[in-house]
Amino acid sequence: MPTSPEKKPFSGKFANLPSPPAILIELIDSCNDPEVSVSKLADIIRKDASVSSKVISAANSPFYRQWQEISDLQRLLVVLGMRNVRTIAINSAVKQFFGQLGKQMGRTVDRIWYHSLVCAYCARALAELTTYTSPEEAYLAGLLHRLGQLALLQAYPDAYQKILDEHLSDDALSMAEREIAGFSSPEVAAELIDRWELRSFLSDAVLYQHEPAEQLLDGSHLVKLVNLASHLTRFEKTPDNETLERADLLLGLNQSIVEKLLNESQEKSNTAARSLGIALPSEKSDPKAQSHQEALGERIKQAALFGNNLDSAPEKSDLPMTLQQIQSDLDLLFGLKQSCFLLHNDDSGKLQPFDPRLTDDNLLEGIEFSTEADRSLAAKAFNSQQTLHSFDASADEPFPVGDRQLARYVRSDDLLYLPLTSQQQRIGVIAIGLTESVWHALEEQESLLQLFAKEAAQTLIRQRDMADSQQQVIEEERAAFHLEARKVVHEANNPLGIINNYLHILGMKLGEGHEAQEEIDIIKEEIDRVGKIILRMRDIPEGLEQQERTVDINQLISDLDKLFQSSLFPSNNISSTLDLDGKIPAIRTQRSHMKQILTNLVKNAVEAMEQGGNLIITTRDNAYLNGKAFVEIQIVDDGPGIPKEIMQQLFTPVTSTKDSSHSGLGLAIVKNLIDELSGHISCTSNPGQGTRFQLYLPRTGSAT
């Protein structure tokens, strides 16, 4: 019989895990920037599993360890110090550059990196939604979930590259990994993490990422988060039914919430990839890949290393990428490196700062320039459509504080404001940090700068028009989807309701003791499952959901009630009554959030009424709370009520009165979603007298 490949020893094999060259370049350059902050370094390191693992490992070594906590990368960097972080970065670069990472392997590293980043963002979003105590720990666990693949790729480059190219299923991949290494990639990653001796279930989360959901019901919250997040990363848009069922079973989340979370995580990862010149998994190899490898060699040769921008060409319909390209062109044409944009918001009449490089973006929050008066130099440049600079300010007319803060943001004492105007359309201004001497050197090129700004404005106008056109197409698709979804649900609900009624009649005729009752119960359960699938079909795809402006609350409640009438209610002997205020207007809110909220509360009520009961849902317009008008929704059941000790911690994720795989999470999720909608929720309950939930949704955004 054939012999299996020789298994190489585990210990010491995985010290040089590969990273995308662009990330190492950015990290080395930042380490050599005397003004770099710890938070910026942490943001760079968070992008990559390989560098993160090296930092965590070093900071938790016996020499440096001051605590056994890995939830905050910034604290770990403080422990290590800048010199050691720089050493880690350069050592990684040297090993990778002289290891002659092949072109195809580099592409594979990019794919592993991208999926790791999406998983990290998904895990953190799930942690925040379900009130997990340490979202940063969930992020790191997601980032490291494919650490074992990087290790195997480094140890067995040719053999493991061939395995990954086959795109095997989880089970087949684990079997192939064991044939060449004796371990699966999750086992390798868990072993590496265990060596850091952390007080965390992080290694378990990585180890059990492929486990069936049913095996995790009693596992830790972190394990569930990473398991679901790792499965979500396999899909570009809509997860399959198995993954959606996993989301419902583990965390009680519906399709709309899951798709929204996945979409946002992918957008963040796409932005990071493009800023580094890394091709997305669905794209062809980026021509910058080879130049990044060459640049990595240059960094190694230099004694003093300083930064180069890694801007990638923007897509026409992507505003941040378009603005980023304008910044790059300013640098290439005029040597103006420090800039950001002030874009005019037509609704508010204000100039709002925007930096597409996404560095220190939090510093810009809250800074706005009103254009109703020339009280700032930014507003004056916008209103007059003139190029203005701060060093001409007189003692009688000092440089305003808002302008000064923007100057500090671009790391300059002075600013040049360059208006963005074309075809009589005013887009905003470019804020450029420069000194008076630099401006005097550029004065002869002022007309060229203005021409550049005009061309940039035309590009932004075309980009905006394209986005408007795309939005119109999306809204048309949304309307068509709504119509088709309503047809499908209407056609499916009728036969489901009839089947349920006849099953109930048949069960009564046969009697409780009849041997066929077990089969009838199974049929009812399957009808319940069909109802849940239809519930997901009703969800609006994420791309369309973002365009939705208003929600008809009464219609949403009626639709859900019809669905539950043909699935959940009959099988649990529940009678429902709707008392809906027809005067309630459509309000501005998120349909996916409202559907998740109502579904969770109804399911909780049904599960509480184990012997059956009555459920009443009412709506009321103009319910005033603290002097503000709200739309009120009440969900009332006549179940056993909620014990006093549970009521005291009702919306925390540890409390529950039912035995469920995601027990205790439902109301915590409801509270988080209500908070996101700027609403309020309250509950009154007495043992033996039922429970009443009251929801208050802001009415101020209602359509007129």
CATH architecture of the largest domain: Orthogonal Bundle
- Uncertain regions: pLDDT < 50 for 5+ in a row? 1-12, 65-69, 98-103, 301-316, 542-548, 659-663
What is the helix content? 40-55%
Biggest pleated sheet = 6 strands, antiparallel
- Please give the count of helices: 28
CATH class of the largest domain: Mainly Alpha
Indicate how many domains the architecture comprises: 3
Which structural category fits the helices and strands? Answer: alpha+beta
Task: Please report the distance between the alpha carbons of the first and last residues.
Answer: 78 Å
Radius of gyration: 29 Å
**What is the total tally of β strands?**
11
Q: CATH fold name of the largest domain, please?
A: Hypothetical protein af1432
Q: How would you describe the overall organization of this protein?
A:
With 704 residues, this protein is an alpha+beta fold. It has three domains: 21-275, Hypothetical protein af1432; 309-464, 2-Layer Sandwich (Beta-Lactamase); 549-704, Heat Shock Protein 90 (2-Layer Sandwich). Helix content is 53%, strand content 11%. The protein has helices at 21-31, 38-45, 49-59, 73-80, 82-98, 103-129, 135-143, 147-155, 157-165, 170-181, 185-194, 202-207, 221-232, 241-251, 255-275, 288-301, 319-334, 377-384, 401-409, 436-442, 446-510, 517-537, 542-545, 553-565, 568-571, 591-608, 644-647, 666-676; strands at 339-345, 350-354, 369-370, 388-389, 415-422, 425-433, 574-579, 613-625, 628-637, 680-685, 691-698. Strands 3-2-1-6-5-4 form a six-stranded antiparallel β-sheet. It has a five-stranded mixed β-sheet with strand order 7-8-9-11-10. A hairpin with a 5-residue loop joins strand 10 and strand 11 (691-698). The longest helix is centred in the C-terminal third of the chain and has 65 residues, at 446-510. The N and C termini lie far apart (78 Å).
